[in-house]
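STRUCTURE:
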């Protein structure tokens, strides 16, 4: 039984989500094109339909028709979306697979080099004065609260595991089954909060930061 218009699920918005949603129903040629795109979606922002088709070993007509079946008005619409995501700093769209990588070892080596480059660029972008000010604040705080929602909490756990080795009274929030407001009410000007928000942050994070700013 097919769902009615009122119950039909919304179409995924991102390119990779659209591809994955119908990958199993694609033809062999469409899957081949999908594999090339998913390997490096960021390259879409810099390529024409002809260049993409050449990389995938398909015709330009096939590539153009492929994006229409995914719900895009044209290839250019999908490319504009890729440019926006790349400009916003999406890791998936910034980390491109090189054209010379043909084996698993090549891909692993490229991934390792990319991760090292990301770490190096992160350290180079740090403001030293702000970094030292943050360190002094953490050292002198009565209590340190680390806040991260959903996938950001993975990083929050890692931060806590490192800080707990050099100081005590560190609280990780939100705690399962507890109300966040109860903990926030106990914070004061002598406490430090470390808020972690990766892309697609939960709205609760900004609301929590606003509340803490008024304490």
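SEQUENCE:
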């Amino acid at each position: 039984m097919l769902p009615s218009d009122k119950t039909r699920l919304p179409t995924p918005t991102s390119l990779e989500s659209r591809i994955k949603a119908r990958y199993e129903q694609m033809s062999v040629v469409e899957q081949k094109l999908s594999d090339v795109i998913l390997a490096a979606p960021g390259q879409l922002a810099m390529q024409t339909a002809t260049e993409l088709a050449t990389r995938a070993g398909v015709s330009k007509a096939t590539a153009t028709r492929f994006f229409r079946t995914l719900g895009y008005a044209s290839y250019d619409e999908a490319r504009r979306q890729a440019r926006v995501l790349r400009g916003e700093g999406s890791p998936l769209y910034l980390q491109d697979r090189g054209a010379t990588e043909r084996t698993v070892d090549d891909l692993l080596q490229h991934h390792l080099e990319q991760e090292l480059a990301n770490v190096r660029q992160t350290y180079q972008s740090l403001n030293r004065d702000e970094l030292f000010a943050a360190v002094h604040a953490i050292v002198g705080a009565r209590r340190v609260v680390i806040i991260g929602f959903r996938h950001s909490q993975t990083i929050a756990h890692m931060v806590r595991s490192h800080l707990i080795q050099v100081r005590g009274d560190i609280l990780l929030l939100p705690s399962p089954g507890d109300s966040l407001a109860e903990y926030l009410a106990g914070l004061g000007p002598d406490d430090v909060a470390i808020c972690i928000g990766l892309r697609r942050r939960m709205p609760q994070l900004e609301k929590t930061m606003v509340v803490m700013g008024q304490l």
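REMARK: Strands lie at 144-148, 170-173, 192-196.
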